[in-house]
């Protein structure tokens, strides 16, 4: 028999991780405050149907209704896990019997009194699969049931249950198990089975089970069936579950922290050569990034159970955090998550995985806030420079911008020659030589420039070109016999 059937709970005390449901239900049974309809909702495999059977067992116990059935009376023996069942407790799988005809038949049978029990209990599993016509057929009997009838609806999607039905039930939401609670359950079952399982295997089973006790026990059952005489080893569990080798994940994170593209793409090559699924590698990498983000934000995350990993692996992740900033980790996690959506249904997952690695290596190619923060972190940490070909601001280099004359614009010497010709002076006479070291001056549009013919070889400040080239008037109204050096105001820039 499968483990999840062998270790199915028989009382509310044996239900693991659902104290928020079992405690109030137990108090209601002990006090006699019993409702005629209950709604158990929650993810798959978290104990909804098992709790419904325990509720029926507790209601029909000879010493009940009680939260602790005796386990020895005829009703308790018949309704125990693996028991033959009871005619007064009927289970209906709405996934295959959710039509209006099935619910009408159930409604007709509801009026008969129980044959050998205190209550007739109808357990409708996957209640969200009942059609609207089927719910309407049950509506009257659920609103005003006979005193001996109790409904228990179990569903993973309570919002799909007809609101008029849902409003007449006591709703108890079930939850997935936390990793520490799940680990205690798995270790206890392995001890009762007398098998040896390496401690590193439990995090793999917990992560593959997704917090569902039934799914986790099914995975553990598969590992125990395929294990050797020495028990279940980490390598066997990793290969059987298809999990990426931890060493490959470490290599990818180290290459990302160092900005080493050759090492990162080499890791992708190793993943493909080892026969791992590129999608699964991306999922495992995203889980590692999640653990790193938690360890960085909450240093005691491993002690609090937020991160499930062996001690040496936690130490390795703490060392990896030193080379990765929070912005870079967040950016990488978002990039991997986006790539996972793109990989869904693709025929070339390796190609998309390599594109994802290119995005991880070059976060500054994007213009969003996360990329800018990641780039700042790399610069502050003294990381690798920007990628080749990226534009470099001229102001950051400290090199002054060269002046490029506009096409067709007259030079300063030509403008001065035109002014001399209009004044009757010598056309080719050079202007007065300026003093050595005189600063370069620019005048307003209404004034002439008095710049020297040759710029100072060692300017004290970078030259700033004027916004518009100065064009002297073609026929000045009055020109002096000799160019005057009009006093100019210093350029505000």
Give me the number of helical elements. Answer: 20
Order of helices and strands: HHEHHEHEHEHEHHHHHHHHHHHHH
| Strand-pairing-aware structural class | mainly alpha
Mean pLDDT: 78
Uncertain runs are 385-412, 425-429, 434-453, 476-488
Strands of the biggest beta sheet: in what spatial order?
2-3-4-1-5
Oligomer: single chain
Tell me the span between the first and last alpha carbons. 87 Å
Task: Please indicate the percent range of residues in DSSP E strands (runs of 2 or more).
Answer: 5-15%
What is the number of beta strands? Answer: 5
Main β-sheet description: 5 strands, parallel
Q: What Rg do the Cα atoms give?
A: 40 Å
Overall morphology: elongated
Proportion in helices: 40-55%
Task: List the keywords.
20 helices; 5% strand; 493 residues; 5-stranded parallel sheet; mainly alpha
What's the SSE blueprint?
Layout: H1 3-6, H2 19-31, E1 37-41, H3 48-60, H4 74-79, E2 89-93, H5 100-109, E3 120-125, H6 132-143, E4 149-155, H7 163-166, E5 170-173, H8 179-193, H9 201-209, H10 213-226, H11 234-241, H12 246-258, H13 261-273, H14 278-297, H15 311-321, H16 326-343, H17 349-361, H18 369-380, H19 394-397, H20 412-423
Parallel strand pairs: 1-4, 1-5, 2-3, 3-4
């Amino acid at each position: 028999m499968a483990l999840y059937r062998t270790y199915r709970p028989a009382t509310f005390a044996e239900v693991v991780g659902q104290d928020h449901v079992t405690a109030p239900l137990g108090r209601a049974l002990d006090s006699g405050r019993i409702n005629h309809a209950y709604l158990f909702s929650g993810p798959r495999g978290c104990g909804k149907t098992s709790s419904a059977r325990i509720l029926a067992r507790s209601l029909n116990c000879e010493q009940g209704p009680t939260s602790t059935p005796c386990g020895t009376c005829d009703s308790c023996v018949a309704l125990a896990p693996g028991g033959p069942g009871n005619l007064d407790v009927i289970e209906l799988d709405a996934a295959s019997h959710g039509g209006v005809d099935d619910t009408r038949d159930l409604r007709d049978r509801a009026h008969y009194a129980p044959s050998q029990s205190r209550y007739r209990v109808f357990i409708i599993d996957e209640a969200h699969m009942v059609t609207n016509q089927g719910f309407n057929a049950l509506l009257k009997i659920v609103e005003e049931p006979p005193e001996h009838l109790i409904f228990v609806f179990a569903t993973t999607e309570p919002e799909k249950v007809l609101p008029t039905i849902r409003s007449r039930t006591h709703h108890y939401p079930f939850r997935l198990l936390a990793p520490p609670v799940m680990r205690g359950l798995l270790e206890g079952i392995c001890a009762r089975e007398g098998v040896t399982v390496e401690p590193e295997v439990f995090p793999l089973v917990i992560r593959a089970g997704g917090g569902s006790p039934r799914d986790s026990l099914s995975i553990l059952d598969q590992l125990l069936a395929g294990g050797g005489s020495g028990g279940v080893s980490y390598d066997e569990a990793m290969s059987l579950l298809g999990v990426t080798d931890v060493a490959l994940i470490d290599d990818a994170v180290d290459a990302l922290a160092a900005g080493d593209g050759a090492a990162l793409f080499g890791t992708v090559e190793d993943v493909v050569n080892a026969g791992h699924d590129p999608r699964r590698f991306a999922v495992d990498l995203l889980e590692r990034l999640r653990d790193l983000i938690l360890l960085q934000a909450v240093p005691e995350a491993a002690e609090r159970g937020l991160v499930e990993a062996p001690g040496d692996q936690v130490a390795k992740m703490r060392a990896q955090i030193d080379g990765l900033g929070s912005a870079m980790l967040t950016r990488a996690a978002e990039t991997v998550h986006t790539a996972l959506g793109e990989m869904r249904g693709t025929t070339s997952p390796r190609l998309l995985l390599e594109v994802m690695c290119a995005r991880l290596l070059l976060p500054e190619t994007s213009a969003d806030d996360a990329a800018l923060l990641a780039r700042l972190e790399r610069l502050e940490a003294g990381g690798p420079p920007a990628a080749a070909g990226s534009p470099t601001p001229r102001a950051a280099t400290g090199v002054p911008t060269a002046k490029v004359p506009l096409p067709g614009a007259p030079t300063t010497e030509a403008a001065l020659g035109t002014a001399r010709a209009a004044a009757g002076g010598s056309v080719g006479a050079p202007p007065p030589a300026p003093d050595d070291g005189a600063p370069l001056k620019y005048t307003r549009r209404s004034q002439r420039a008095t710049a020297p013919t040759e710029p100072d070889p060692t300017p004290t400040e970078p030259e700033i070109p004027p916004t518009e080239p100065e064009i002297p008037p073609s026929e000045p109204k009055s020109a002096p016999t000799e160019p005057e050096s009009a006093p100019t105001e210093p350029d505000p820039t």
